[in-house]
What does this fold into?
Amino acid sequence: MHFLFKTAYAQDVALFKHGGQKFWYALLAVALVAAPFLLSEYALSQFTFIGIYAIVCLGLMLLSGFTGQVSLGHAGFLAMGAYTEAWLQSMGWPFVLSLTMSALVAGITGILVGLPALRVKGIYLAIATLAFGFIIEEAVVRAEHITGGNAGRQLEKLVIAGIDFDDGINYYYLVTAIAVLCVLGVLNLLRSPTGRAFVAIRDSEVSAQSMGINLAYYKTVAFALSAALAGIAGALYAHKIRFITPDQFGFLQSIELLMMVVIGGLGSIQGAIFGPAFWFIVQQVIVIGKDWLPPALGQQTGLQPTIFGFILIAVVLFEPMGLYGRWLKFRTFLQIFPFYRKGMFKRQKSYMKSERMK
Amino acid sequence: MTTPMLEAVNLSVRFGGLLAVNDVSFEVWPNEVFSLIGPNGAGKTTIFNLISALYRPTSGEVRFEGEVISRMPPHVVARHGIARTFQNIELFEHATVLQNLLVGRHCHRHTGWVQDLLFTGSVRRAELEFRRQVEEVIEFLDLQHYRDSLVVGLPYGVRKVVELARALSMRPRLLLLDEPSSGLNTEETEDMGFWIEDIKADLGITVIMVEHDMGLVSRVSDRVLALNLGEVLTLGTPEEVQAHPGVIEAYLGGVDDD
It folds into this structure.
């Protein structure tokens, strides 16, 4: 078992807690850089999607996993980013600026959507964000001169400083770099007062305000940042797909995003990456597995959603911490082998929240 | 005479038809331990919630060092230097003890979320400073063993101390303790008593406390305010209050109560 012997306060602030972590993350970085040389074009394209979805999930994790505000309308922010990017590109804006604008536009929308969050909680907030998702989808259909309506909108080739990013490998590197930056940003937030304020709001609003945390302000910031991340992902998504239509940003997309976050493990940054990674891998397994199943089952239209539905139910029942929780247990098992025992992660149930204010 | 630290002036709160607090006035002087006692439903916690501005008074006001705080939002009141604990422990359960205490430093932050996002040098320096300040509280309350444990996994008695620690991390001038000894065993209550004495003597923090354990109340309090049904019964030293016939009646029921 690895015991951490702390000798300086700086260790509590550091991103990597010990040398082992540095080593494994360095290895991951090498793997990410080497991926294009090891993977087929198709597999690399799937990895690019994982990177894009990891950015949205990161935003959703920040909002739902860390600040405790549910959003059922995140596809709406994705759409804001995607269409802003498509429109600004056609106006001749350089990518760096248009990407920043996509994040800004989505972020400002996030603030507007966050306003009801200052008044309503839980299921009511879920309904409010759900309605927002529908409004955006509908607005995109109607605003034909910008979005192309139901007929969709084509994006031009992405070229930055003479480098062609239509190429799978270049685009993979671009997405990965942006995703890594986003992860670092969120990690920074979480180890600073802002992140702690988010967690405080999630766990107890009453005591958060008694600690001097301005609930309205931090909820708004959480919404804005979460939406801005979705906006960035939306812009990257638009360039990846090169053809965007309103139905790509529908209610189902929002639900899928939320499912990814829950399956990955609410309240963990790793979960925001495990979620989409698992999602795309299982999707591939289903596509391949289809041919092995009897046609009556394999060719059913609802096969994929059904399987994901069952996975979600299994996660909620058996591993509320999601894949990240599973990973923690597995890691502990390896670290203290052979002393792992069942129930090490069981927590005592507490019933102290019986009498709350308001 | 100097100005009182906290002043409640003709406070009243009405919840629908229930007059929870009725025309209560009192003053708390700097560096004293002031206890509120009374049977259940006397309005003690309601007064706490009025001071920390979670409730608005129907009439009357609360003044902190001469400034009216009963119309400010709760987070602004906290920034004035008023910290509190809760009757039913309101910790951030899925965070570590250390993170909980660091939240206590929140109102002393100078950086905004943009700097936090980039984790600039000033954020790093502030974090290290917060960490050092929090360690002083950890030492004061003997929480060294629990620094990195999640609050969910801690026993009740320890959570109670962590909540006190979090309030102290704010370095408040006024500390509100809502039933600090409830759910604690005799030994833990004893410790709590020592700590409250130290908080007053060593840290120079004024304490207002709601408490049912009369042993603890008479040990640490300078003055006691007895309430019943939202009204002031009496105010005085612990001995005076305990001997007051109205207090005995409110707690035990009077002879002519039948």
User: Anything to note?
Assistant: The interface with chain B takes residues 9-10, 12-13, 185, 188-189, 191-197, 199-200, 202-204, 206-215, 221, 225, 267, 347-348, 350, 352-357 of chain A (CB under 8 Å). DSSP finds 16 helices and four strands in chain A.
